[in-house]
Amino acid sequence: MIISIETQKQMYNYIASNKKTGIHGIDSNFNYFITEEIKKLSKLLYLRSELYIGQAKIFVGEDNKVTRSKNFTCISNILIFQVLHDIKNCNDFANEEIRNSLKDKSIDNLGDIVESGSSLRMKLIRLCKLYLQHKDIELISKTKSTDNYDLAKESFLAEEALGIYTKEIYGSTAKVYKQKVFRANNSGVQVIRPDIILINNDILLVIDIKVYNTIGIKNHNKFEYSSNANRFQVNSYIGKCLDELVDDKNKRIRVIGLLVHIVDNELYDKNKDLQGNDITVEKERPMYLYMIQDNGLDAIFEDYKCIIDNYVEQ
User: Does some domain include residue 230?
Assistant: First the structure.
C-alpha cells in the first residue's frame, strides 16, 4: 500500500461529494462503503420522488383527449438502474414502466454521463460511477496479487481526485479535460485516454498520475526512471492532443508532459534524486517526472498545485 487508508478515505469522499472529510467508521473495504451509500441515497431520493428523472410528454389523440406520460430513458437513469439491479439484496426502486424503459439499455462511456438533479442525486451518480469503475478494477486484477489490486485501486483514486481538483482550480481560466477519450483510427487498437489535459493560452499540459511501488532503477551505473512504457505513452498522448485539441495548427503551442507519482515517504527518500528530472522522449515534446508525498489529501493538492503553477499562469 502506497496511499494511506486515511488519505484513500479522503479521496473517496472528495470524488463523491467534493469534500475531503466526512467518512468515518469504515475499514479498507471501500466497495462496501460505496454500496451502502448508494442504497441509503437511493432510498432517500425515491421517497422524495427524485431518483429517476422523467421527461414529461403530452399527446393529443384523435378525439382531442390529452394523455400525459414520462420518458425515463436517459443515461443517468440507466446508470442508477443498472447499479441498483447489480447490488445484491437491493431494491431498484423502479415501477414496471421504468424497468421496461431501462432494463435493456447500455452505457458506452461513463464519462458521457452528466451529473444532474439535486445535489444528493449528483452524489449518487458519482457513487454509481465509482461502483462500476471498482468492478472493472476487480475484474482486471482478479487473477493478480492483492498488491497489484491495491495499486490499481490507489492509482484510480489518485487519477480521479486530481482530475476533479484540476477542473476545480483551473477550469475557469483554462480548458481542462479529465480522462479525455480519443478514438483510435484502427478499431483493433484501444482508445487513447490521458488522465488530465490542461490547455491555457499557449501551453498544453498532459498530466499522467501514477501510483507505483517502484520509481527508479539502476541502469548502467545510472539511476533513472523505471518505466519507459509510461514515457512513450505520454509522448503519444501529447501528439494526439496536438492533432485534435489545437484549433490553430499554425499557433506556436508549448507542450509539456508531466508524469506525477503519488508516493509514501520511503519511496520518496529512495528516489528523491529523480524529482523534476527530464525524461523527454522527443525534444519538441519535453516531459518531466515529479513525486508527491502522501501527507494527506490537502497536502497532495497543495504540492500538485505548486507543480502545475510552475507551468501555468492563472
Answer: yes
pLDDT tens digit sequence for 166-202? 999 999 999 998 877 776 655 445 567 788 999 988 8
Same domain, yes or no: 227 and 179: yes
In a domain, 15, yes or no: yes
Give the number of domains in the chain: 2
**Reported pTM:** 0.80
Inside any domain, residue 156: no
- Please state, in angstroms and rounded to a whole number, the distance separating the CA atoms of residues 189 and 79: 26
* Rounded (5°) CA angle 52-56-59: 145
Cα 149 from chain centre: 17
**Quick check: helix, strand or coil at residue 63?**
coil
Residue 109 and residue 202 in one domain: no
Local structure of 43: helix, strand or coil: helix
Q: What mean pLDDT is reported for the chain?
A: 85
Kindly state whether residue 149 falls inside one of the protein's structural domains.
no
In angstroms, what CA-CA distances link 59 with 54, 68, 105, 246? 15, 6, 25, 46
78: exposed, middle or buried (C-beta count within 10 Å: 0-12, 13-18, 19+)? buried
Please check whether residues 69 and 189 belong to one and the same domain.
no
For 139, the grid coordinates are: 475484474
Give tens-digit pLDDT for 136-157: 777 766 666 677 788 888 998 9
Q: Are residues 112 and 183 in the same domain?
A: no
Domain that holds residue 13: 1-143
CA angle 30, 31, 32 (to 5 degrees): 85
What CA–CA distance (Å, rounded) separates 80 from 76?
6
Q: How many helices (H) and strands (E) does the chain have?
A: 9, 9
**Which residues are paired to 217 by β-bridges?**
224
- Tell me: do 177 and 298 sit in the same domain: yes
How far apart CA 219 and CA 216 sit, in angstroms, is 9
